[in-house]
Amino acid sequence: MLFNSFSFLIFFPIVVLVYYLIPKKVRYIWLLVASYYFYMSWNAIYAILIAVSTLVTWTSGILISRAESTKEKKSFVAGSLVINLGILFFFKYFDFTIDNINAFLGKLHMTALNHPFDIILPVGISFYTFQALSYTIDVYRGEIKPEKNFFRYALYVSFFPQLVAGPIERSKNLLPQIQNIEEKKPHFKVIVNGLILMLWGLFMKMVIADRIAILVDKVFEDMYMYGSIELIAGAIGFALQIYCDFNGYSTIAVGAAKVMGIDIMENFNTPYFAVSVSDFWKRWHISLSTWFRDYVYIPLGGNRKGKVRKYINLMITMLVSGLWHGANWTYVVWGGLHGFYQVVGDLLKPVKDKVHTFLGTDKNAASFKIGQVIITFCLTTFAWIFFRAESLRGAWFYIKRMFTRWNPWSVLDLSIYDLGLDVLEMNILVISLVALLLVDVIKYRRRVSVSDVLMKQNMWFRWAIVICLIVAVLVFGEYGINFDSNKFIYFDF
Question: How far is 451 from 192, CA to CA, in rounded Å?
Fold first, then answer.
């Protein structure tokens, strides 16, 4: 069930209405049922997987709390990790592993292995697996007490707003709210705030991401037909598409949870205003980047064992992060590039500081920061090419052609309108991107969301903006002429 579907438009109001009308003591049961129904709308049989993950991690939490020795606790943690990561490996990486083994065997002129299973990747498996595992680890570390009520814990793992594409919540934040769900009362301003967030998320997804996807798909699918200008436009377009697509989903998720009085973590904080790649990862997919920091990078030693070990730990973390996104070497290279950027940036920092001191550079000047933002955007956009490409060979061809087939005249001959969007649709996209830029600038400078800003405005102004967003979504979004709804990109991960 997609957030931008008619079925969700019916499902969500019913869930919220019943949630506030039924006895408070059974609210969590209702949300659990609704969450499983939401997940089973894709494929009912895969509810078994999330139920198994839930049962394993809940049981491990109980056993860890009762264990009498550290050795016993570690064994229960290890068991939980092996089972959950084993399920994730089978469904997400088994075919990838077989294909790579067969490629290696082919070079040795040996018989290839058969694919014994027809595997379909369950929606959201990477997200709920990591969320469940973080609970087990947090209980082991003593950061949270184990939840004894299985159904409350099951809701923590399957809470439908953030179930299939995050944010990847932490037990320390979401579980206490579920435990105190009886205390949640409907507050008009909170509900309106949440609905505005949902509307803005739909605008980002349906008006911007789905529209710019037409241009991006055309360029990447027919890359051999285009020169540098179109290929650069395609790369920048994908950077904007994936931001609006994934941030749109996360914003809808945060808003939907807020309507029910539940606060889930923010997943994006103006990432394209980052002044470095390390700053980018503090702003992009925050729930995942902090997950890898807390459960991979720091346990590996973090930056506590010298610079060499720090860089090794950083590269391992980013490579694993890339592989988490998908079973393809393109994702691994994408993660490796981000790790490489950060290592090189850290190594060159003393040199850059000396150069800036020698030149008398004012690091607080707006021009300096804008320069940093542009450089960071270029680096991340270059890496996105590997993320979007179907293969490493395709990514290399795209990059090579982008730097060798210069056609600056295409800027003047209006050939940009031959990339799937006519003049009208391109103008709609530009206006929408200006609106996005305005909202992100306000968020960057004031550190508040678009809904918080609107809630402080005059009622007539607020409702005028809301009506404009509704009209934009209905007319220029999924329901516009010749536009179809695309599923959210991160559903594949």
Answer: 9
For residue range 376-386, what is the model confidence (pLDDT) as tens digits?
999 999 999 99
| Alpha helices, DSSP H, located in 264-306 | 277-280, 286-292, 298-300
Which helix (H) or strand (E) segment holds residue 49: the answer is helix 47-66
154 burial via Cβ count (<10 Å: 0-12, 13-18, 19+): buried
110/103 Cα distance (integer angstroms): 10
Structure token digits, residue 363: 């690091």
Is 440 within 8 Å of 273 (Cβ atoms)? Answer: yes
Q: In the structure encoding, which two tokens stand for residue 383, read together?
A: 């890496």
Query: Is 325 one of the catalytic residues?
Result: yes
Instruction: Note the pTM of the prediction, 2 decimals.
Output: 0.91
pLDDT value of residue 116: 72
Q: Which amino acid is located at 438 in the chain?
A: L
Provide the H-helix boundaries in 208-306: 210-221, 228-259, 277-280, 286-292, 298-300
pLDDT of residue 306: 86
d(CA 141, CA 30): 31
Query: Which of 109, 187, 285, 325 is flagged as catalytic?
Result: 325
Residue/partner pairs of 335-338 with CB below 8 Å, 24 or more apart: 337/382, 337/383, 337/386, 338/277, 338/281, 338/380, 338/383
Secondary structure (3-state) at 43: coil
Hey, CA dihedral for 202, 203, 204, 209, is it positive or negative?
A: positive
CA distance 234 to 389: 11
413 has pLDDT over 70: yes
